[in-house]
User: Fold these one by one.
Assistant:
Number 1:
Amino acid sequence: MFSRRSSPGASRRGFYLIGLLIVIAILFILYGKELLPDKTTGKSTQDMALERSKGAACTANRQALSVQITAWSLNHSGETATVERLRQDGVNVPPCPEGGVLSIGADGHTIYCSIHDPAPGDAPPAGSTSPPGPVVPNIPSGLGM
Ligand SMILES: [Zn+2]
């Protein structure tokens, strides 16, 4: 009687163990694919996601700076905004998350990043992805800019 009861329990435990091992193997395979480098770029999926997020953060920082330039321009009509001039006036110029140097174009409101969006004429750094484009503030009409 006891031998009949223990036999199905042992097979059930064996089934759970095999199922658990299969699930762990599937998780290792899926996670391993994320860690393996892409064949075209040579970068892992996580590295590419990190680069994209830093590029997006840089774009957001430049958009925030463009708003500050617009506000600064309201108080300094006729003056051309530069990063140095903004810092002198206490404007918080946000940094590029990858250490790029922000610059303001000759028009006074187009913001470039040396890594993510180099100014025309500046060569993009080797290995950089396609730039998202310059950030130009949306200046309301009638401000004479
Ligand atoms: Zn940048």
Number 2:
Amino acid sequence: MKQLQTTTLLGVAAATLMCLPALAGADSHGMKAVAEIKGCTDPDISGTAKLMEKTSAEGIKEVTVKMMVEGLADGKHAVHIHEVGACEPCGAAKGHHDPGPFGQSRPDSATDDVPAADINHPYHMGDLINIEVKNGKGKMVHTTNRVTLSPGRLSILDEDGSAFIIHTNPDTYCDEESDLKKGCAGGSRDACGIIRAAQ
Ligand SMILES: [Cu+2]
């Protein structure tokens, strides 16, 4: 019995030691960012988003987004990380965060005269899940490994920053070429929030 306990303890100690190099390499562990969300035209829309990066045991950087928004119409709304940290006007946030090399960043918008025909949607790095709003309150929690807060090609805290855009309609994840139609990525822009590094 005594021997068993010693073996177990040694096993735990060994496992702890084995974890140390992985932890030491995870310098981005716990990196955070925040966004204050405001309506594009409707002052009654407001919210916050918190982002936290962690490194998985395999060394994959994952960012968890927690978003709360009030004042949007009930139902589902597309949420994307757009490629520029600018919200005035909301169009200044430009297309969907996507360092490439394959995609265009701008999917069809409801106001386009000519379809943008971006067949990379919904596989832009900044394409997230819809937020669902009930009785004027929306909450979304989503973890993605398509973006990072720490420096690198996928970083959303790059030179020109990034912003959340919440759209009027849901994203239908129109991923077939035959599916591409105006506004399948959510249509017009209801709210925007510039993503800023935080402690
Ligand atoms: Cu969008």
